[in-house]
Each structure stands twice: as structure tokens, then as C-alpha cells.
Amino acid sequence: MPKVRRSRKPPPDGWELIEPTLEELEQKMREAETEPHEGKRKQESLWPIFKIHHQKSRYIYDLFYRRKAISRELYQYCLNEKIADANLIAKWKKTGYENLCCLRCIQTRDTNFATNCICRVPKSKLEEGRIVECVHCGCRGCSG
Amino acid sequence: MAVSKSTNTYNRQNWEDSDFPILCQTCLGDNPYIRMTKEKYGKECKICCRPFTVFRWCPGARMRFKKTEICQTCSKLKNVCQTCLLDLEYGLPIQVRDAALKIQDDLPRNEVNKEYYIQNLDSQMSKFDATQPSNMALKSKGASDLLVRLARTAPYYKRNRPHVCSFWVKGECRRGEECPYRHEKPTDPDDPLADQNIRDRYYGVNDPVAEKLMRRAAAMPALPPPEDRTVTTLYIGNLPENITEEELRGHFYQYGEIRSLTLVPRAQCAFVQYTTRSASEHAAEKTFNRLVIGGKRLTIKWGKSQGRQGPNDKSETLPALEPVPGLPGTLPPPPPAFLHPFPPQMPPPPNRPNDFFNLHHYAGPAWGAWGGVAPPIPPPPALHYPSQDPARLGAHAHASAPQT
């Protein structure tokens, strides 16, 4: 989400209903950004950012596709204004990716053996009692 | 001098580039399908400090990632695993292996010397078969008995477990369940095993693990051959119920010519007498604590040297007894043909006959025969008969049988 809203286009109807929640998430994001990294592992420092980003996109996605509470114009506006991540939402529409945590976890290019992240492995396929926490976004399993 | 890998060309001819690591079974882990990463000139060898190809892999579930630590030249030089530095054949520390095989090596420790030495060796090695260890002395020349006994029979995968979480030890690990390190009590820092050093382990000095193994080897039960060189008899105890003499002979004939084999089924024991001392020593060494027949581990002991023990013991322990009346006196010595009843192809018996049954002290007419001396007249009950004294005749066999 851009720091400054550049478009002069007035937001569509219903914006005032979702604005407080988005403002709250925005505030949380600010806090996460300014939080000190001391005492955290190197990977850990970005986890809250990924998490809040996911939450915000998820909020818009749910409102439009699940609860059908907002109009298509408002949804489109959110995507255009980059309030919701269109790429991430595009993945959620695919089977098996309904709960995907972040785009980095399905980026196979960055790994040694061209594999997905550990959080993409279904719980049933993991060995018994294994607890995972992926290094990219701290996801603890987003694949059933 | 910080230089990148690509710009550092110092002695680059010597940089090792390999396709496959030299590893032991334990380090590879239990999974037959392993993915390894290979990094050319990824690290410097911890022994010779030359860049080498580093391999990295995970040896199974819940194990830590392992990587090769020393270069292949150093590994071939000692025939050890590139990661754990244990002997490839026995999985034992270098110090133990070298002590058991009596290998002396004088690898240069000085930096320049070492570089020169390794360089020469490398060029030598490239001429020979790469699958063989360079040092032929290390190839098993008749597996050392000690090494076989000390070696593990199965791979020891516990060695691949993750390390103990240092944060947890300090009480500040915040990762909880997700922590890939072990949340366990660390080993005692005063434990000598906690202080290991890869170079010392490679050169086979001050290796605490090796010292522990050596101590264990020293404490192992051993069967020292008796001083009396004439003893060629082995006592075999704890025999299974239904063993036949033929079976026993089959087991013991492989170590040398057997002069006599006496099976005492009542006491579950047997006596094997070899024609030569070396054969009996060989048999004792090979079978002691190792021979299992019919699911029972046989007890192997040396026969007693009667010559020394017999008369002294008797004078101390037993009261003087009056001789039995009516026994025939000592016979005249038998003719020489009778004294050498063995066929000519067998070597003659040692100077003194092996009378582990204590027979010829009783002046019986037939030494070497088993049975007692039958008195001609039924004697009065008060009389003492050596042949019927349980403490004397054949007592060694029976006395030692129950304790097995």
C-alpha cells in the first residue's frame, strides 16, 4: 500500500465501511516497520511485515469473494491502489493454494533443489510431530 | 588479505575439485536417497588449509546438516571419512587404528612443509587408482583382532543429531518447539570427551575418544597363555547338551592338528589337546569369548600345568595318607615303542606328557587312561583311596565346570 494516496479519483461507495479496518492494519504495519530488530534472528525481522501484508490482502479477498460485502468497483479500487496484493489473491483462487502465506514461499527459483518452502508441505506428508516455521515469513504450514 | 575465490590464484593447481565425497555410512545417514549440494572450493581443508570441494547434505529426518571438513587428499592419506575423521573400515579414531595396526606416520605439521608434502603426495596419488587409500599400510592386512572387537557393528546415527541449543542452555531460547536444536542437558564441560580438536584427532594425538577406547580395550577379558610352554591343552566349557565329539573336532581342527579331544558330557566340558603350542595359542586367541555353538558361548581356558602345581599343592592341602595296601608297585618303564604311541607323521609330544588329569602322580599302571585304579580286594571302609577322592582324581575338570 502506498504511503501517500496519489490517485485523485474519489473512492467508490462503501469505502467508509472498510476504511477503519484498513487504517488499523496500516497502523500495525507502521509499528512493525519501526520495531527494533534486536533480539530477533536475521530471518525473523521480516516476518511481521509478511504477516500484516497477508492479513490486509486476506481482508479484501474475504469481503469480496467470500462474504460478498463490497462492490466490484471497490475491490478493483483496492487492487489498483495496491491496498491488496493482486498476485497473492490470484494464487488464492487456485486449488491447493487457498491459504498461501506469501509469494516467496512458492518461489522455487531461490532454493537449492528448486523446491517450495517447507510450509507448503501438507501436514500429513511431514513426519509425525514435526513442527515447522518457515524462514521466509514464519508460516507454520499453509497447505492443509 | 581478503580475496575472492576467483581472483585468488595462489597455487591454484593444488586446489581440489572432486565429484563425490569420501564418507562413512554413519555420516551418510539412513536414507538411501540423499540430496547433496556441492560447492567448488567452498572452504579450506581443516588440516592442510587448501580450498576443496565442500559437500553438504542432511543425513535423514531430525538430523543436522553435515558437510565435508577435510579435503580428499588428507582423507585418503589416513583412509578416513571426510566428515567424521573416523577410519572408513572400522569407524574408529585414527589414534586407535594406528595403535592397533602399529602404524607410525610422520606427517609434517609445519605449514610450508605440509604444503610441499601434500602437493607431492597429490601428484603421486593422481597416478594411481583413485579408489584405493594411498597408504597401503592402512588397507586391512588381516583385520586386526583388537579393531574388530572395538568397532561398532552397526552405524551410529546418534552422531548426526543436532547440536544442543546454546540458547536453551543459557535459559533464553525463545523458539520453543520450533527450535531445530536439541533442548537437552549438555555434557559436563569437565568431561574429557568434551574437549576435542579436529587436528589432534587427525594426527592421532590427545584424542579423548581414542583414549577411552584404548582403556576399554585394556579392560577387555583376555586369555594369556600360561608360562609353562608344555601346556597345549584347552579347556572348553559351557558346551551345549547334545554336542558330539565330531562337531567339536570340526570346530577346533581348523586351528591346528589335534592330538586328543576328550568330551566330558557329564560336566558339559571338553579338553582339546593340540600337537603344537602355537596351534593351541592360535585356537585360544581365535575362540576365546567368541566361539558360539548351539547358541551358547563357550568358555575357553587353558589346561592347568600339572607339573608345577601338583606336588606342591598336595603337600600343603592334603593330610598325609597311608598307602593303600595290596596295590601293585610301580611298574618297570614301558618299552620305547610304547612311550611313543603316536604315528610318525605327528610331532612327538612335549617333554612332559600333558597330564591334566593328574594321573601319573598316582603311580597307576596305565597313565593316560581315564578310569581309576581298581583295587584287587574290597578294602575296609576306613581306608583312603586316592582314586575315589573327589578332590584329586580328575578334579580339575569337574571343579572348574560348574563355575562356567
TrEMBL record, chain A:
InterPro entries: BUD31, BUD31/G10-rel_CS
PROSITE patterns linked to this entry: G10_1, G10_2
Keywords: Nucleus
One of the record's GO cellular component terms: spliceosomal complex
Cross-referenced Pfam families: BUD31
GO biological process: mRNA splicing, via spliceosome
Compartment annotation: Nucleus
Family, similarity comment: Belongs to the BUD31 (G10) family.
Name this protein carries in UniProt: Protein BUD31 homolog
Organism annotation: Danaus plexippus plexippus
Automatic annotation (TrEMBL), chain B:
Region described as Disordered: spans on this chain: 303-332, 378-404
GO biological process entries: mRNA processing; RNA splicing
Ranges of residues in domain C3H1-type: 159-186
Gene3D superfamilies: 3.30.70.330, Zinc finger, CCCH-type (4.10.1000.10)
Keyword set, alphabetical order: Cytoplasm, Metal-binding, mRNA processing, mRNA splicing, Nucleus, RNA-binding, Spliceosome, Zinc, Zinc-finger
Residue ranges of every copy of the RRM domain listed in the record: 232-305
InterPro entries assigned: Cwc2/Slt11, Nucleotide-bd_a/b_plait_sf, RBD_domain_sf, RRM_dom, STL11/RBM22-like_N, Znf-CCCH_RBM22, Znf_CCCH, Znf_CCCH_sf
One GO CC term, this protein: Prp19 complex
Superkingdom in the source lineage: Eukaryota
Signal peptide: none
Main localization category: cytoplasm
ZnF segments: C3H1-type: 159-186
A Pfam family per the record: zf-CCCH_RBM22
Cell compartment(s), UniProt: Cytoplasm; Nucleus
Family: Belongs to the SLT11 family.
PANTHER family, alphabetized: PRE-MRNA-SPLICING FACTOR RBM22
Official protein name in the record: Pre-mRNA-splicing factor RBM22
Species this protein is from: Pararge aegeria aegeria
Classification lineage: Eukaryota, Metazoa, Ecdysozoa, Arthropoda, Hexapoda
Protein encoded by which gene: jg7280
